Amino acid sequence: MNNNEREPIKFTEIDLGGDAGEGMRIPARDPAAVTPSKSITFSMESREQAFAEEALGRADEAGEPAPFVPFMSYWATYQQMTEAQRKWYFYWRSEVRQGRYHRTDLSYIFIYVYELIHQVGWTDPREGYRLLDEIWTAYRDKFPRLDHYLKEWTADFVLIHKLGIPLIHITQRAGSLLSHELMDLELVRLFQEKPLQIPMELLLILSDYDVQDSRFYVEAGQEDLDYHIPRIVSLAAGYLREKESDQWKALFAPDIPPKTTERYLFHRAVYDARLYGRLLPVTTIPIRNHAPLRSWVTQIIRYTENKLREHRGFKGRLRGVQIAPSIERLVELYLKRELTARQEERPAIVIDSDKLASLQKDTEYVRSMLTVEEPGTTEEKDEESVAPANKSSAVHSDTSGEGSISDPVVALHSEESREPASVLKTDPRLELGSGQVLDTDVSSDQEPAPVTETDHSPELLADDHHAASTDSRPSESVEATNAGSAAWDTSGLDEEWARFAEMLAPYQLEALRVLTGSIPNADLNQVADRHGTMPGLIIDEINDLAMETIGDLVIDGDRIAEEYIDCFENLKG
């Protein structure tokens, strides 16, 4: 039957008669039977917020000496520690604040780092960065996992407080790169520097060719490629900046829309987001993905490898390498000079012990015949006879320190660092004529101390809380290796000369100073090497500035123009 065929529903109404009953009465409440209510309180405070508040409250707490108690927790906080662990932590923290780094567990270190993130233990952000750097330096060898976490947290700290510290310092400390947006940010900063200096690890992320997978790199050329590629890229970029500025801008300063990335702050740390927020917007140009730049870097790396393969007699060449003729010529000139200098060999020193003993005996005999010894003079004469030998040994021992450079940036372009080492450095033993070996370098196996950005390298103390002795002698060759700064007193010159002097970079002032010297060509080459450029480029830069200010060229060829030589009388080194 269809719905439309249904009959209408009929309702029946029923009326119930009679009176309504009284119903059920509700008994009165007995006050004695009432149970008192209990108040229940709960907090919506997160673990991170609770830690931040407790950390601020314990900021000045000093710990008394206490025994070490092991502690391991994935999310380390005060609440996770026992009373004995808390006593050790605050004692250990007091020692760390005094520069004494006892052996401890990783969870204690994380709590200390969380405190620094929450502004506990410092008032100036640069002081906070220094403390982060010191705790990282002290314990990174013992706990390699610190590199993974602290490189990102330290970078967040630098960005939040706008410290202006190059992020490349953090990557070099950690031995690995930061996230993509931070690498883009650092590359854009590096491209604005003059001269351009990009370390090998950053060039690798700009190249479509992984040179480290090359058979030549693995078997024979790692040292050469790691040394020459960054310098060649620096020279080529400097050439483009000065000679082909349009191409330089197209490669290193392209008109690419900036990209903003939301970066999670202090990811995987116990961090209260009320302090700095949860996300940090990072706006930069995605320069890593710029195809023309990647192609340019790739071709230079491949061309350099081919030239080094040819020089080392390594079979096989990379195909499809195409670079501009001007850059090709620049690379060839650089490698010709560098590889020729490296191939120079110094004569080996061979000492015949038999002849040495015979000469010493003859000398003693002749000296005894020619001198009349008086009482009390024997000791003085013996000391005088030894003096020439000491001087001679001093000459040889001094060469063992050749090329010692404390500044890694100066070492990158230093002439001394490319010279072949002396015989005493390459072979710490002197070969004697009778087949004996005289060991002259007992410390050749010692590793150099790591360079840090802090004023001192923190020491990791042993379990008995005694400081480990270290040999941290400051290098005495820094001033001799680094170029001295030049100063130019222009008080007696016209206003345009003063403006010209103000526009000059330090290395350009240094170049002008050496051009007024007796051996300008050799000295100018050393200045160019130290700053990763070429003498001709420096001269062109100086003349360009001179044309803008005084309206004339001040360098004619490779000499100061004769009519302006008097203007540089007060340019001192």
UniProtKB/TrEMBL annotation:
Regions of compositional bias (Basic and acidic residues) in chain numbering: 453-476
Pfam families recorded: TerB_C, TerB_N
Annotated ranges, domain TerB N-terminal: 43-243
Compositionally biased residues, Polar residues: 390-403
Stretches assigned to the TerB-C domain: 475-571
Superkingdom of the source species: Bacteria
Biased composition (Acidic residues): 376-385
Region annotated Disordered, chain positions: 371-489
UniProt name for this protein: TerB-C domain-containing protein
Organism encoding this protein: Paenibacillus favisporus
